[in-house]
């Protein structure tokens, strides 16, 4: 396996994003429609946060556990904003960061996705799935 391959060669370049003015119902729809687990929150081309499906589940647990036949699209999603739920201090990587270094960050920090930023602009996202697919191709 080659050690210095840049993450830009395996990252997802088509970005599904949210803005701080979007609501959590839209986020849930995007998670479900695109079958993804992480969505960058952007202001223009700059990343300002990251929202994961787990973040939505975390605020919805009491509701789901109550078993009132109410889904995630109920009052809970309307009670919070994207900005209240998203992770704000986002760790990012550059397109030239090696796949090995990205794997180390994901493993050590227990993340499942990293935004890829070039000169302040969000240019992609790399997930554990991207890494696994790369390793499968290599072996």
UniProtKB/TrEMBL annotation:
The keyword Flavoprotein does not apply. Keywords: CBS domain. Residues 11-69, 86-139 form the CBS domain. The keyword Aminoacyl-tRNA synthetase does not apply. InterPro entries: CBS_dom, CBS_dom_sf, Diverse_CBS-Domain. It holds the Pfam family CBS. This is CBS domain protein. The lineage of its organism: Bacteria, Pseudomonadati, Bacteroidota, Flavobacteriia, Flavobacteriales.
């Amino acid at each position: 396996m080659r050690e210095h391959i840049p993450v830009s060669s395996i990252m997802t370049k088509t970005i599904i994003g949210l803005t701080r003015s979007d609501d959590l119902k839209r986020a849930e729809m995007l998670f479900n429609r695109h079958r993804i687990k992480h969505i960058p929150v952007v202001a223009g081309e700059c990343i300002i946060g990251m929202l994961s499906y787990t973040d939505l589940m975390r605020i919805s647990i009491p509701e789901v556990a109550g078993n009132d036949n109410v889904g995630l699209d109920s009052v809970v999603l309307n009670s919070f904003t994207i900005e209240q739920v998203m992770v704000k201090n986002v760790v990012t990587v550059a397109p030239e960061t090696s796949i090995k270094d990205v794997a180390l960050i994901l493993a050590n920090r227990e993340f499942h996705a990293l935004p890829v930023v070039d000169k302040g602009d969000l240019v992609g996202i790399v997930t554990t799935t991207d890494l696994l697919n790369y390793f499968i191709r290599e072996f």
